[in-house]
Specification:
The complex is a heterodimer. In chain A, a hairpin with a 2-residue loop joins β4 and β5. The two termini of chain A are about 60 Å apart. In chain A, strands 7-13-12-11-8-9-10-14 form an 8-stranded mixed β-sheet. Helices cover about 40% and strands about 20% of the residues of chain A. By secondary structure, chain B is mainly alpha-helical. Chain B contains 23 helices and 13 strands. The chains are: A alpha+beta, B mainly alpha. β6 of chain A pairs antiparallel with β1 of chain B.
Chain lengths: ~900, ~550
């Protein structure tokens, strides 16, 4: 447990990457302050196309203050607010202060609860903390259930039907959650004060006095009453106070309270002296530790009062951990703390109540909504009165009064930012952004789910409706399969006159390309996949499986599949087959779709050698390969279901797999991606490759060669399979066999699968091999002959015609590499059939070149030549002259 | 503890985690989107197919030769292998160029990586020219060669399948280009053997290769030079489509017409450049003189030349407008940051306006309440002078380049405003076709110069003060544009200012000027020199004189 806690502390979180993803269907946020432009211009753009259920709750005072400063010239920057997403301010006696972010993707949810507002500081640049919960485990689900219950009550506080409708939608979108039976780790103060809940939980396990009380928050109440209450109730032997010079508290008063408590006082100043916005309360007694984190500052309004008693609305998380782990959590990344005496607190001063900075207008304009005829309906508290007008900063219109506090303008009003004024023009209310109900509904429930523009160039609209099209779209939108495509979409930028002075300033252009690629939003998918150790946590792969499984019972997180997507596919498929019966409906696929899809998959395969992928992630090709392998495994299942309806033929699937596998492991005439890695990267790549990849590879390879294809076909696969075997990517498991039984309809055992693959790797047909390889390399004739007598280190002799200068012909290294792969030899002689030259490579020795058999001027390579070196030459188009003096 | 109580707190793995930055701070090179107007909108119209760093003509034949050899040798059909091959060959050529027996001083692709390698006695280790994929070819010559119809890039459809690597089109032009370089180096040991090895290169091999392959030797290779000339200024005609058959299908009728128009435009722009060399021999070495020459109304021999001259004139005018806005921007950022620091918070809308009004203090100082139209009238009437670098300067009489330089050096909002007003006055007399084509080109971020000038005219009709005119510039071309551009660049954080919670917050993230976009001064000079269209004057290599071939080229284009 402690190891996990320690690891979690050291791993930072990037909320933007976690939450704002293309697969999000619903995003609900509660925040004190909101950076409207950042959200509209950047964060919202990271989400996918509709359907989107996005709602942001913010504090009424803060929003009123922001909107009151907005001049009419800037109102157009609010274009998306209350059109594409819903903004609601929450009015309470004090502040609406909770910071929580719920993102729902297809069947799963992630909830972040912490200290960061919806702003650049809150999500990226500031010193903030968040706790993450993901649906699928009892603890996570209980927190999600608590949050949902709390949110229901917040929705009720706002009391707005547009919002309520969206909340219903959210409930549908969330995975099913358990009923709430007991208080969970998520704390709120709608009913009782957070400090009361904290103390009660601790007292259940340990009676005061406690050993340590650790505190950190940017804001206290002026007289440190909340701290006084904590010390009185917990009676700590020591208080550790983490502060910066910006901490808002009456320092002298705080010192008095702490001295009076009798505790040893340990004051630590953050270094560097940055503003730390995280709010943390830690308690230690013996080996037990508790940590309260979240939105609550060390103030009465936040901590000591419930909402009923006039407190803020706050949200927190109570975590149990070992006391020794606690203090490290209080120090932000990249900072340290410096111990000072209690008198250092005197320098701190209370800088006013940050949560009550604005004097509110007397009328609360709760909501404004456009009607179909252009008039605007408003709801106010108190209800609108005769003589009031609605002003959109350009024109003002009279209001017609209706029951229940509603009022409607007598004429259309075009502006999107409105406020209530009286007949004299005096402002009576806060400003509100007008809802556009038609657009809001269209975004929530569109007829078309995704933009047509975000698709590979090969595909057309109709292709997207098929499972195959959907799978390819998912891959395209979440992974960078082709770096060129990503760069082509990026703006071209410009070149400054003073930057263009010298063509040799190559770094500039490289940086430009790299910067464009690393900014691609899909880069985060790689980080997320590689950050986790197993499939259980590799959410992007789970998303892909869900996309692929659109026709079969959905994969919920609770159904996590014990590490084998292959087993899952097979299992789900057999269920689906039983449900449907065996009478699938046929439809005739178009040949043109097939061509387009194959072109796309070929392009992606060939793009895996692009060096620029390293800028995306050093292991990007491995991730792409992993995703493609599971996609192909699923597509085989679709093919098996109804070959006549499926867009691709079995040969197509095999060709694609040959291409992808060859790019990854090598194809006998050149290195694969794995071979090109330096040892540390290779070790990392093999370590990071999910454990289920070999069984998936094995299944796909068996499908290519398992059912007794012709000998030429086996020969084609032999070098790739041999390479795959070398990299330990051929390992059959029970899941492999189960899957193959479902797809092939054959009765198979694990041993039969393995035997068949080994048979292919050992397959020999010299005549056929010579014919095929000769054709590939445009060589007239190839023939195996008995190796030279007495040369024990030369196992194979090959005679060849069609090459005049073997040292300068790039086909020769490719030929030697292919022979060695085929014959699994490391010593070879290649002779010209017309006896004009010979090249001999004895195992472990120097290569010899003789212009003719009797020529005494035979030359030797400068050093021993290995087969690996020949493979490298072959892969890079090199020639043998490189190894001779 | 009971099980129920055990669920009351989250276990240890649910500890809160500190956030890590998602945004990285960077200055950003084009904060108002002016460079992109030049690079992505104007230059492709004015001089299609040539990039700013497409500097040396011989690289066209060299890269065509490389692609041809790659195919001839049946090398692997994947981009990685092609990339390695090109980068290796570029390294070798770089060595040769640096050891040019004529000590021509040409700078090869990959000069930075080559460093002082070539100064050694050899043998020279083999390496790659540039780290980036496809080397200097990918960075500087691939796109031009594709535009010129010489190279079919990877992904081009052959039948219904995309080709995996770049290849030459099967045209006479492409074949002649490759053969041009090949015939120059065919006799060398490098070509016969060393090109294909990765052994260290002996010094005599490099020197022999340098003698034949250095960039400066193109002048002596008339066939090769003619092939490069044809690649840049020729087309494949009707015969090409027949010869391509079902191999590489390049074009529909529309793209063929587009190709033809690009060739024509390229010829016109280069011919116009040569006429300027004839009139102003030192434009080959001075960008300032080049700019001024481009602005001046040409004594055009015919309508074609008048049109292209007008187009280039509009480019120069756009740059003067950019410089004027840049001065406004620069002072606005300086003052805004200072004001924010004083207040300890961002600025309200009115405070931002006050910052702009303070900019009327100059220099030049004209008085906050002075009417802009009055300044305009004074410029028109003559006699309006300002102090610049300790001396009087009369904006309406100095050259346009001097006016641009005034805005750049003063670096104040008022110098920007005066420059804009004077530019507007001078532009009012331009009415030729090419000018109108150029000034109507806008970008995604900034309106066209035509729109700016007509907007200014409408603005002046409202009798604004100079302070109000500065605010007009800031509120239309600075404030909203910079925010939109910076948001588009996130997660790279390039903001100099942004609105946060209703306040304009300034960032100390680079508050200096941003540069002009490059206008192909250097490529025009070097490519036309390489093609033998002009030569340096005797005893003065900073001035150029047209060769007979250059004169023939101009006559051929303009008649």
């Amino acid at each position: 447990m402690n190891q996990r806690a320690g690891a979690a502390i050291s791993v930072p979180i990037q909320p933007i990457g976690e939450l704002f993803r293309t697969s999000v269907l619903a995003l609900w946020i509660t925040t004190y302050g909101v950076d409207l432009r950042l959200f509209d211009e950047f964060l919202l753009g990271r989400l996918g196309e509709p359907p989107l259920n996005v709602v942001v709750f913010t504090d009424h005072r803060t929003l009123a203050s922001t909107l009151s400063r907005m001049p009419r010239e800037r109102v157009d920057t609010l274009a998306h607010v209350n059109r594409r997403w819903l903004l609601r301010s929450v009015r309470s006696r004090l502040a609406f202060h909770p910071k929580s972010y719920l993102a729902v993707t297809d069947g799963r949810a992630i909830l972040l609860v912490g200290s960061g507002n919806l702003s650049s500081d809150g999500l990226s640049n500031g010193h903030e903390v968040f706790t993450t919960f993901r649906s699928g485990s009892p603890v996570d689900d209980s927190v999600l259930a608590t949050w949902l219950d709390w949110m229901r009550r917040v929705v009720e506080i706002v009391g707005d039907t547009t919002l309520a409708g969206r909340f219903r939608k959210l409930e549908e979108q969330l995975p099913s959650l358990p009923a709430l039976l007991t208080p969970g780790p998520l704390l709120h103060n709608l009913d009782s004060a957070i400090v009361d809940q904290l103390i009660a939980r601790i007292r259940e396990r340990a009676a005061p006095p406690v050993d340590d009380l650790l505190l950190s928050a940017p804001y206290y109440d002026s007289d440190a009453i909340a701290v006084a209450m904590l010390t009185q109730e917990l009676k700590p032997r020591r208080v550790v106070l983490n502060v910066s010079s910006a901490t808002s508290v009456n320092g002298t008063r705080l010192k008095e309270i702490l001295m009076r408590s009798g505790a040893h006082i340990d004051v630590r100043f953050y270094s560097p002296d940055d503003f730390v916005h995280a709010k943390l309360v830690g308690v230690c007694t013996g080996e037990d530790g508790w940590l309260l984190s979240g939105s609550a500052n060390l103030s009465q309004a936040a901590l000591v009062r419930s909402v009923r008693d006039g407190g803020n609305i706050e949200l927190g998380v109570l975590t149990k951990l070992r006391s020794v782990d606690l203090s490290a959590i209080f120090v932000p990344r990249g900072m340290t703390s410096v111990v000072r005496g209690p008198d250092s607190l005197d320098a701190l001063s209370f800088s006013g109540d940050a949560e009550d900075e604005t004097t509110l207008p007397r009328v609360f304009l709760k909501m404004a909504s456009a009607l179909s005829d252009g008039r605007v309906e408003i709801t106010t508290d108190p209800s609108a009165q005769a003589g009031w007008l609605l002003d959109d900063l350009n024109v003002r219109k009279s209001l017609l009064l209706h029951p229940f506090g509603r009022a409607i303008t007598v004429e259309p009003i075009a502006g999107r930012l409105v406020q209530v004024i009286d007949a004299d023009g005096s402002v009576l209310s806060n400003r509100a952004i007008v809802d556009d109900p038609v657009t809001l509904a269209a975004v929530l429930n569109p007829s078309v789910a995704h933009s047509e523009s975000d698709r590979p160039v090969e595909l057309v609209t109709g292709d997207l409706d098929t499972p195959l099209g959907q799978a390819l779209i998912w891959l395209h939108r979440n992974l960078i399969m082709d770096a060129s495509e990503s760069l082509a979409k990026a703006p071209t930028g410009g070149l400054g006159a003073n930057e263009a002075g010298d063509q040799s300033d190559d770094d500039l252009w490289q940086r430009l390309e790299r910067d464009r690629l690393v900014r691609d939003r899909r880069v985060s998918t790689y980080e997320r996949i590689l950050a986790r150790g197993s499939l259980l946590e590799t959410e992007p792969i789970m998303e892909l499986l869900n996309v692929l499984s659109s026709r079969i019972p959905r994969l919920h997180s609770r159904d996590r599949i014990a590490g084998s997507p292959l087993a899952h596919i097979a299992d789900r498929w057999s269920v689906s087959k039983a449900d449907e019966g065996m009478t699938p409906r046929h439809r005739k696929p178009s040949t043109r779709i097939r061509t387009r899809i194959l072109n796309l998959m070929r392009r992606w395969a060939s793009a895996q050698g692009d060096e620029r992928l390293i800028w995306v992630n050093p292991l990007a090709p491995a991730v792409n390969f992993t995703a493609m392998s599971i996609a192909l495994a699923y597509l085989w299942m679709e093919h098996a279901r109804d070959p006549r309806s499926f867009e691709l033929k079995s040969d197509d699937l095999n060709d694609m797999w040959l291409l992808w596998l060859g790019q990854f492991v090598g194809n006998g005439q050149g290195e694969g991606w794995l071979s090109r890695l330096e040892p540390p990267e290779l070790e990392r790549a093999l370590q990071k490759l999910p454990g289920w990849v070999p069984e998936t590879c094995t299944a796909l390879c068996w499908l290519a060669i398992g059912s007794g294809p012709e000998r030429a076909h086996i020969l084609k696969w032999k070098p790739v399979l041999t390479s795959a075997l070398k990299w330990k990517l051929l390992e059959a498991t029970d899941a492999t066999a189960t899957y193959l039984i479902e797809v092939s309809g054959q009765t198979l055992t694990l041993a039969e699968v393995e035997d068949r693959l080994l048979h292919v790797t050992e397959f020999m047909d010299d005549k056929l091999w010579c014919s095929v390889t000769g054709g590939q390399l445009a060589l007239n004739r190839l023939e195996f002959k008995v190796p030279p007598g007495g040369a024990t280190r030369v196992q194979v002799r090959l005679d060849v015609s069609g090459i005049t200068d073997p040292l300068l012909d790039a086909r020769v290294p490719r030929l030697i590499a292919a022979v060695c792969e085929y014959r699994r030899c490391d010593g070879i002689a290649v002779w010209a059939t017309d006896a004009t030259w010979r090249v001999v490579l004895p195992a472990g020795g120097r290569m010899v070149y003789a212009p003719s058999p009797l020529d005494p001027k035979a030359s030797e390579s400068v050093a021993p030549v290995t087969i690996a070196a020949i493979q490298r030459l072959a892969g890079s188009g090199g020639v043998l002259a490189s190894v001779f003096p | 503890m009971s099980d129920l109580a055990g669920e009351a707190e989250a276990p240890a793995q649910y500890v809160p985690r500190w956030i890590a930055r998602s945004f990285t701070f960077a200055e950003g090179r084009d904060p108002l989107g002016f460079q992109t107007t030049t690079q992505d909108r104007l230059m492709p119209v004015l001089l299609p197919g040539l990039l700013e760093l497409t500097r040396r003509a011989r690289y066209f034949s060299f890269h065509a030769f490389l692609l041809d050899e790659y195919r001839e040798h049946h090398l692997p059909t994947d981009l990685k292998a092609l990339s390695d091959y090109i980068k290796r060959c570029e390294w070798d050529l770089g060595l040769a160029i640096q050891r040019c027996p004529r000590q021509c001083g040409s700078s090869p692709v990959g000069a930075r990586r080559l460093g002082s390698t070539a100064r050694g006695l050899g043998p020279f280790v083999r390496d790659e020219s540039v780290e980036s994929a496809l080397g200097g070819y990918g960075l500087y010559y691939r796109s031009p060669l594709a535009s010129l119809g010489i190279v079919a890039g990877s992904g081009t459809l052959l039948g219904d399948r995309p080709i995996p690597i770049d290849v030459l089109f099967k045209t006479d032009r492409a074949a002649r280009l490759a053969e041009g370089f090949r015939s120059s180096v065919r006799h060398t040991a490098y070509f016969k053997r060393w090109m294909w090895t990765d052994e260290p290169l002996p010094v005599d091999v490099v020197d022999e290769y340098a003698e034949a392959a250095c960039l400066c030797r193109l002048k002596d290779r008339s066939d090769e030079r003619s092939a490069v000339h044809d690649a840049l200024f020729g087309d494949d005609g009707a015969a090409a489509s027949e010869s391509q058959g079902d191999r590489l299908v390049t074009s529909s009728a529309t793209t063929a017409a587009l190709f033809q128009s690009e060739v024509k435009q390229r010829r016109c722009s280069v011919a116009h450049y040569l006429t300027l060399v004839q009139a102003h021999p030192d434009i080959i070495s001075s960008e300032a003189i080049f700019r001024e020459a481009l602005w001046q109304l040409p004594v055009a021999s015919n309508a074609i030349q008048a049109r292209v001259a007008g187009q280039w004139g509009s480019l120069i005018a756009k740059d003067v407008w950019q410089e004027a806005v840049c001065s406004v921007w620069s002072e606005f950022c300086r003052r805004g940051l200072e004001r924010c620091r004083q207040l300890g918070r961002g600025l309200t809308w009115d405070e931002a306006k006050d910052v702009v009004m303070d900019m009327t203090a100059g220099p030049p100082q004209l008085g906050k309440e002075k009417l802009t139209s009055a300044v305009s009238l004074e410029l028109k009437g003559g006699g309006f002078t300002v102090r610049h670098e300790g001396k009087p300067l009369e904006p309406s009489t100095v050259s346009l380049e001097a006016l641009r330089s005034f805005a750049e050096r003063e670096n104040t909002g008022m110098s920007g405003l005066v420059t804009l007003l004077e530019l507007s006055r001078r532009a009012s007399v331009r009415s030729d076709v090419g000018w109108y084509e150029g000034v109507r080109i806008s970008s995604f971020w900034q309106p066209s110069l035509a729109n700016v000038l007509s907007g200014l005219s409408a603005h002046l009709d409202r009798s604004p003060t100079v302070g109000e005119s500065l605010w007009w510039i800031v509120s239309n071309f600075v404030l909203p544009v910079h925010e939109r551009i910076s948001y588009s660049k996130l997660p790279e954080f390039t903001f100099r200012f942004r609105w946060e919670e209703g306040l304009l917050k300034f960032y100390d993230n680079g508050i200096g000027r941003f540069p002009l976009g490059a206008i192909r001064h250097a490529p025009l000079a070097s490519l036309t020199s390489d093609l033998g269209l002009w030569q340096p004057m005797p005893l003065d290599n900073r001035r150029g004189v047209l060769t007979e071939e250059g004169k023939r080229f101009v006559d051929g284009v303009f008649g």
